[in-house]
Amino acid sequence: MSNVIADISMSLDGFVTGPDPDLEHGLGRGGEAVQQWVFASNESPEDRAFLEQAEGSTGAVIMGRRTFDFVDGPNGWNQDINYAYDHPTTAMPPIFVLTHHVPSQTRHTQGFTFIRDGIESAVSQAREAAVEKEVVIMGGGETIARAIAAGLVDMVRVHLSPVLMGAGTSLFALIDQQIQMTQVDVVVTPNATHLTYQIETTRKT
Fold first, then answer.
1. Where are the beta strands (DSSP E) in 13-116?
2. Residue 179 belongs to a domain with what CATH number?
3. Closest by alpha carbon to 46, among 147, 192, 160, 171?
4. Has residue 204 been placed in a domain?
5. What's the domain range around 168?
6. What is the DSSP-derived secondary structure letter of residue 34?
7. Looking at the DSSP assignment, which residues form a beta bridge with residue 170?
8. Half-sphere exposure of 162 (CA within 13 A, CB side)
9. Which helix (H) or strand (E) holds 10?
């Protein structure tokens, strides 16, 4: 059975983007600082190893519609950068996009499945597609928070970046209940602290 992993980079004060994310600035104003460890991975063997290990263990991906709109937009994924970051020749895992309305036209025409009937359906279909690998919910913050609140996530993997954003998209603003976790792994690199937690809840699907 595939584990469902919520995987996202976050600032020390809990933001996963800077202020005002849009199609031009998917990470918001100044939000690149939150993912600096990814951008610096070519110069950091520790970060590069973590990035490649996570990439190799992913069997399917879930993302929200706003994340997809940026990925599919003019400043999103291209022939140089995609889910495998700067290894675009690596086959991407199947990606499931949560949305209320399927877009009539997209720049990326293969590899994306649009899910209109909720996070539970997305997780179920992604787990089937992932086989024995991980299902990764990569964003945005609202999609991850809703999946955690619904009891659909097994583990949370946070890449904690050494920056205070002051404003932006909060990762856990929608969580309104106590959720107990157990820390299972910590990897410290020059650019981030990679934290992995097991959620102590019963899967609902």
1. 58-64, 95-98, 112-115
2. 3.40.430.10
3. 192
4. no
5. 4-199
6. G
7. 15
8. 7
9. strand 4-11
Sheet with strand 155-161: strands edge to edge: 112-115, 95-98, 58-64, 134-139, 4-11, 155-161, 193-199, 181-188
Asked whether residue 30 is domain-assigned, the answer is: yes
Residue 9 main-chain phi, psi, to 5 deg: -90, 145
Tell me the C-alpha to C-alpha distance, in Å, between residue 166 and each of 15, 71, 94, 170. Answer: 8, 25, 34, 10
- Tens of pLDDT along the chain (205 residues) come to 789 999 999 999 999 999 999 888 888 999 999 999 998 888 888 888 888 888 889 999 999 999 998 888 887 877 777 776 666 556 789 999 999 999 888 888 788 999 999 999 999 999 999 998 999 999 889 999 999 999 999 999 999 999 999 999 999 888 988 999 999 999 999 899 999 999 986 555 4
Question: How many domains are contained in the chain?
Answer: 1
Structure confidence at residue 188 (pLDDT) = 93
Q: What is the DSSP letter of 117?
A: S
- The confidence score (pLDDT) of residue 90 equals 63
Work out the angle at residue 114's Cα, subtended by the Cα atoms of residues 7 and 82, and round it to the nearest 5 degrees. Answer: 50
Tokens of 168: 């932006």
Residue 55 included in any domain: yes
DSSP H helix total and E strand total for the chain: 5, 8
Q: Answer whether residue 205 is part of any domain.
A: no
Joined tokens for residue 107: 């720049």
